[in-house]
């Protein structure tokens, strides 16, 4: 009689075997990815001694390291619930996994709708965020690297609406000439236009470019040296150019989440059915 019960349990278990290992395999990757991202964020905080001096974190929401920790932590938790839930056939963890995916899906859909409805408000928030980055450009290396990447590599822009926005920063403000700042009335090197075949990047190319009548050593005008278009306008143009790609990525992401929810719920149903038949 015991042998018959064992045979029936194994036979029923085969029904959910495919779903079980599909969910397990994908979530192992998410689990490892989340752990890696979170580790990078923690390492970045450690490098700038943030754990020992929390007063430095005056703009936590705009801290790139904090964003990595948050994204990595959420991904880690989702991957953990899906991976362990499928492997151990734990209906509670699988239910939590499905709920987490559903919540994130709803939040993403809500964010997408609100982006179109409140475009002006979001634009205003983006302007304030960029201004905060400019003001604290020299205070946080993570924020500095982020804005340099935005200006130099991603959007090829300078400032929020233009180079004059760098007056918000004490180092680049034109009045800082009185206190001997060499960067006064200038912009960061990331505002400069790239030169072909440039091996060593000129970190001083933005010096004095906002002074009236400025030309460089070979007589080049400012518009030939730095990008004069603001990052806000460049960002809007980038979104317009890549709208189809962004929409495709969002649809694929939503489809994967719906698929994950369905798989988790089907596996839970199989586990409940398995337990009912075994008992």
Shape: elongated
Percent range of helical residues: 55-70%
Uncertain residue segments = 1-15
By DSSP (H or I, 4+ residues per run), the number of helices equals 8
- The helix-and-strand class reads mainly alpha
Mean pLDDT: 85
Report the radius of gyration as a whole number of Å: 26 Å
End-to-end gap: 13 Å
The ordered string of helix (H) and strand (E) elements is HHHHHHHH
Number of strands: 0
Strand proportion: under 5%
The biggest beta sheet is recorded as: none
Q: In short, what is this structure?
A:
The protein is mainly α. It contains eight helices and no strands.
Descriptive overview:
The N terminus is likely disordered. The protein is an all-alpha fold. The protein is built from eight helices and no strands. The chain is 62% helix and 0% strand. α2 packs antiparallel against α3.
Characteristics:
about 280 residues, mainly alpha, about 0% strand, disordered N terminus, membrane, transmembrane, Tetraspanin_EC2_sf, Tetraspanin/Peripherin, disulfide bond
Write the layout of secondary structure elements.
Elements lengths: L1 H12 L3 H31 L16 H24 L3 H27 L1 H17 L5 H14 L76 H11 L1 H36 L1
Helix pairs in contact: 1-8, 2-3, 3-4, 4-8
């Amino acid at each position: 009689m015991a042998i018959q019960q064992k045979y029936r349990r194994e036979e029923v278990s085969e029904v959910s075997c495919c779903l079980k290992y599909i969910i397990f395999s994908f979530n192992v990757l998410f689990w490892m990815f989340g752990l890696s991202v979170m580790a990078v964020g923690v390492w970045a905080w450690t490098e700038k001694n943030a754990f020992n001096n929390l007063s430095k974190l005056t703009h936590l929401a705009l801290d790139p390291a904090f964003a990595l920790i948050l994204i990595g932590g959420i991904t880690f938790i989702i991957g953990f619930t899906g991976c362990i839930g499928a492997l151990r056939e734990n209906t509670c963890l699988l239910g939590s996994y499905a709920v987490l995916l559903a919540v994130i899906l709803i939040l993403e859909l809500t964010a997408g709708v609100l982006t179109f409805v409140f475009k002006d408000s979001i634009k205003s928030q983006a302007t304030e965020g960029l201004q905060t980055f400019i003001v604290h450009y020299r205070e946080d290396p993570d924020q500095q690297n982020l804005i340099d990447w935005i200006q130099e590599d991603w959007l090829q822009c300078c400032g929020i609406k233009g180079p004059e926005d760098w007056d918000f920063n004490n180092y680049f403000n034109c009045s800082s000439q009185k206190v001997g700042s060499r960067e006064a009335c200038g912009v960061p090197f990331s505002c400069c236009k790239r030169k072909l075949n440039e091996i060593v990047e000129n970190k001083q190319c933005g010096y004095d470019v906002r002074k009236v009548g400025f030309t460089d050593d070979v007589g080049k005008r400012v518009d030939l040296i730095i990008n004069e278009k603001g990052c806000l306008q460049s960002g809007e143009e980038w979104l317009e150019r890549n709208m189809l790609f962004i929409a495709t990525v969002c649809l694929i992401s939503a489809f994967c989440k719906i698929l994950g929810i369905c798989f988790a719920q089907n596996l839970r149903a199989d586990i409940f059915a398995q337990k009912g038949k075994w008992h």
